[in-house]
Design a protein that fits this description.
The protein has 173 residues and is of the alpha/beta class. The chain has 5 helices and 8 strands, in the order βαβββαααβαβββ. Strands 1-2-3-4 form a 4-stranded mixed β-sheet, with helices on one face. Strands 5-6-7-8 form a 4-stranded mixed β-sheet, with helices on one face. The N and C termini lie far apart (49 Å).
């Protein structure tokens, strides 16, 4: 990993650069960081030093910033934040692999004929109900979404279960 250390209102010593490189090298145990360019920006404020680290990866950008009275403790805090981000995102990717969710690629479906794209067609009766009733129906059916007619607005809406455990609603204009 290539590390670029910049600063504002101060000079970065060789010892500071070496410390940052050493700490960032610990992140390599979580992911491959061979062709990655990490940018570290150090800002000096009246009695504190702020360290910002940005690491652009292929699928996401890792970014963290911390402020402390001591440069070295600010670097330690930033590295621990970055480690948490990597672990969190690695867990999400593993969950996607387990559940079979893959990255969506439009090129995979462009060459299919019309009959191969649609594998099932279903007609439903859209009943007027409240949002709470629609969520209850969705949970009772064991589905991830449920289409209903909002009894208050009179328009068609779709309630769906979000990955974070909450619910979302898509309404007709």
């Amino acid at each position: 990993m290539e590390v670029l250390v910049r600063s504002d209102k101060t000079t970065v010593t060789k010892a500071m650069k070496d410390y940052v490189k050493e700490k960032l090298s610990k992140l390599e145990k979580y992911t491959v960081l061979d062709d990655v360019k990490a940018t570290v920006f150090v800002k000096v404020r009246s009695y504190s030093q702020k360290v910002e680290v940005t690491i652009p990866l292929k699928t996401l950008i890792l970014r963290a910033e911390e402020e402390s009275e001591d440069f070295y403790s600010a670097v330690d805090l930033v590295i621990s934040k970055l480690e948490r981000q990597i672990r969190k995102n690695k867990t999400k990717l593993k969950k996607k692999e387990k559940t079979g969710i893959k990255e969506f690629n439009i090129d995979d479906i462009i060459d299919l004929s019309e009959d191969e794209k649609i594998v099932k067609r279903k007609k439903i009766e859209i009943k007027p109900m409240s949002l709470d009733e629609a969520i209850l129906q969705m949970e009772l059916l064991g589905h991830n979404f449920y289409m209903y007619k909002d009894s208050d607005l009179g328009s068609v809406a779709l309630v769906y279960k979000r990955r974070d455990g909450g619910y979302g609603v898509i309404e007709e204009e």
